[in-house]
């Protein structure tokens, strides 16, 4: 497997120049676009790494999976999905057009309107410190902290998210205050993780929510099923359909360059590559996963069993 991962890593590096780092949040624009790292962890205990897999970056939209998990467990499936849908939007992650003109509910929890709704549901029950502890647990990384510089940069440039939140409040979807919901959402996006942290979380999801470290259940099985399904259909912004065809793994990306993929019942994959494509996904990360999927037959609807030799 190490050889195939190295081939995929090289293929990913070759496309880095075709992308750009996110600049709409000034602090994210300081990233080195040539950084690239990958970590793969298997349920039988094998670990494969390459490049900058331990370099810290902000989790951004991958936190939406964590917030959704917590919201379902605390508020219940019915309550969560009475406030947010589960369909692909076909629009960019920060769009408010369809929410305003076509639909009262956010299309899904993986776009900003949906994640702000999820944050609003959590506000009465969970502080950011509670959510940080939960993130450390599911990512199996006690060193996760909030990057204050990124948080402040995001809050200074949050006009669009604030507009989305006020639109949600006007529709009765956000009920716990725009400011509190926006603050929790933005702090969650500003947590610093590594590719290894993401591989750990993906491995937990691959193992049906049971920790591979101590065999304790951290996320309910039904919850895990929902998370993986929504990741497959909505996790890669408005590029989710094409990614599902080419790669076929439940995945979630973030504009900080993170990319997390679940190889169900087998492995978790975490990638860091801050050079983004036009959809906001790691351009090298997408290429790496496409190559790995093809070479190792990982596609959800065609694969047999991962060869880790």
CATH architecture of the largest domain: 3-Layer(aba) Sandwich
Number of helices: 13
CATH class of the largest domain: Alpha Beta
**Counted beta strands:** 8
Q: Which terms summarize this structure?
A:
309 residues; alpha+beta; Beta-lactamase; three-stranded antiparallel β-sheet; 13 helices; 8 strands
Explained architecture:
This protein is an alpha+beta fold. It has two domains: 2-58 and 192-296, DD-peptidase/beta-lactamase superfamily (Beta-lactamase, 3-Layer(aba) Sandwich), CATH 3.40.710; 61-189, DD-peptidase/beta-lactamase superfamily (Beta-lactamase, 3-Layer(aba) Sandwich). It has helices spanning 2-14, 63-75, 77-83, 97-101, 112-122, 128-139, 148-156, 159-170, 178-189, 195-206, 221-234, 240-246, 283-296; strands at residues 37-42, 47-51, 57-58, 145-146, 191-193, 251-253, 258-263, 267-272. It is globular, with a radius of gyration of 18 Å. The mean pLDDT is 92.
In short:
With 309 residues, the protein is α+β, with helices and mostly antiparallel strands. The chain is 46% helix and 11% strand.
